[in-house]
């Protein structure tokens, strides 16, 4: 009995300690988020994140744009300026990726051929670029990890840079307007709790992304089924 009672107390204390730690971490995150929103460096950080994300897709530029959109809702930033800065950063990053592919075309193709999955992806993107390049460059940013492959492949296959820049600019305009507006909506809906606003905006973005990706996969399967039946 005594052992069980002691074990119950220990478990309760452990739970209380864990809850306290989670609460403390949430408070720290809330303070960091509030600091980021009012920081004079936010737009510069946003520009760098958008540029780097185009080359190394490990930098969460979407999260930064959402945060900046929330800052605009709170009156700390200008929404149009937020979208413009993110767009410019992304265009510069994607253009750099294009010229990296253009300068290392043969080496890139050899690297792609080392793995069957990479080779298949390269072949598909290459064929798609030259059949419907505009659509690919505008929509590829919604597929995780595919944007870098598409921009590198565009450069490696000598896809017209004039067309590349036009379609890339159109794509980033749509993408970052959408993401910044998600942040703005979340910031406006939860004006007194920025952590909830961020969670809401990220959840909304993930839900919309899941719907779009599911719809895309269904459409691809239907097209494949029609081709097979024909």
Count of the domains: 1
SS strand fraction: under 5%
Q: Choose one word for the global shape.
A: globular
How many separate helices? 9
What is the succession of H and E elements?
A: HHHHHHHHH
- The average pLDDT value, as a whole number, equals 75
Q: Let me know the largest β-sheet.
A: none
Uncertain runs are 16-20, 22-32
| Helix amount | over 70%
Structural commentary:
It comes from Kribbella kalugense. Belongs to the DedA family. InterPro entries: DedA_domain, VTT_dom. The protein is 86% helix and 0% strand. It is mainly α and 230 residues long. It has one domain. The longest helix has 37 residues, at 2-38. The protein is globular and about 55 Å long.
Outline the secondary-structure elements:
Blueprint: H1 2-38, H2 42-55, H3 61-73, H4 79-103, H5 105-113, H6 116-139, H7 146-156, H8 161-189, H9 194-229
Helix pairs in contact: 1-3, 2-3, 2-4, 3-4, 3-8, 3-9, 4-7, 4-8, 5-6, 5-7, 6-7, 6-8, 8-9
Structural descriptors:
single chain; 230 residues; mainly alpha
Summarize the structure.
With 230 residues, this protein is mainly α. Helix content is 86%, strand content 0%.
């Amino acid at each position: 009995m005594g052992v069980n009672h002691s074990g119950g107390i220990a478990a309760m204390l452990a739970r209380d300690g864990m809850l306290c730690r989670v609460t403390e971490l949430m408070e720290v995150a809330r303070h960091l988020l509030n600091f980021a929103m009012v920081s004079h460096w936010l737009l510069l950080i946003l520009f760098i994140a958008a540029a780097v994300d185009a080359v190394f897709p490990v930098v969460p530029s979407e999260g930064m744009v959402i945060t900046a959109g929330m800052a605009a809702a709170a009156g700390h930033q200008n929404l149009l300026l937020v979208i413009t800065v993110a767009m410019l950063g992304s265009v510069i990053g994607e253009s750099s990726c294009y010229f990296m592919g253009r300068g290392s075309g043969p080496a890139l193709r050899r690297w792609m051929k080392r793995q069957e999955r990479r080779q298949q992806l390269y072949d598909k993107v290459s064929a798609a670029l030259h059949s419907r390049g505009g659509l690919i460059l505008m929509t590829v940013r919604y597929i995780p990890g595919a944007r870098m492959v598409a921009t590198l492949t565009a450069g490696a296959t000598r896809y017209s840079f004039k067309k590349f820049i036009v379609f890339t600019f159109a794509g980033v305009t749509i993408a970052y307007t959408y993401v910044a507006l998600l942040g703005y909506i979340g910031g406006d809906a939860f004006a007194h709790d920025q952590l909830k606003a961020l969670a809401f905006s990220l959840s909304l973005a993930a839900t919309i992304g899941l719907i779009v990706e599911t719809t895309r996969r269904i459409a691809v399967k239907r097209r494949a089924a029609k081709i097979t039946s024909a």
